[in-house]
Amino acid sequence: MREVVLRAKGFAPRDIPFAGAATLVGVLLGWQTLASLGWISTKFLPAPLSIIQALLTLGRSGELWLHLAASLPRLAWGWAAGTVAGLVVGLLLGLFTLARAPGMAIVSALFPIPKIALVPLFIIWFGIGEGSKVITLAFGVFFPTVINTLAGVDGVPRGLIRMGQSFSLSRAAILAKIVLPGALPAILAGFRITTSTAIILLVAAEMIGAEKGIGAFVLSAGNLYDTDNLMAGIVVLSLIGLTVSWVLGRLEAWLLAWR
Fold this sequence. Notes:
CATH superfamily: MetI-like
Strand content: under 5%
CATH architecture: Orthogonal Bundle
């Protein structure tokens, strides 16, 4: 008797251990080889070893830590403020009819505006100090968070909500036990978008109005045609993004273990 092969396996892509790291290492080795052979002009694109040397020099001199100490609090405060506000507004729009239409009208009108274009305006309103930079990040993070939260709430099966109501659950219990868990995947997916947005806006804000910070450092290196330090600053931004992505991945695995 022949064994029946199960065909309905679905789409279940798996992570291959170390494949991502091996890919990055392969790209760096290829880059270094092409630069060593002279096929890539190091005047315009430094070799990886030169960038690593620049990073080590910046680390030993303390300059790297000085710029990170300025940038990381701005990134954390701006992202946190925009995320909290976006979650609150997104839930209000998703749960209350009276808030939905007026709120979505405002979000739809303001969301398409390039947030980088608002940096000079925020500097006029809030000054050249930390306030304008944090507000810029928070403003950029706020709208994607609202939209993802609203989409997550709308995606919760209404049958589950009606089932909770049939068991006489309170509105608070339905929100905590049905709506929020159901909307959580969309909200966490939005976090990956907003963290990247926050890093982009951080660099833009620091380039326009800051003496310290990774964005200001990259701008200064570019003005001096110091490509080694310019690429070193870009690598630092990439490492910040990779670190945040890893943290979010661990957070998703913990919060969405029920899936």
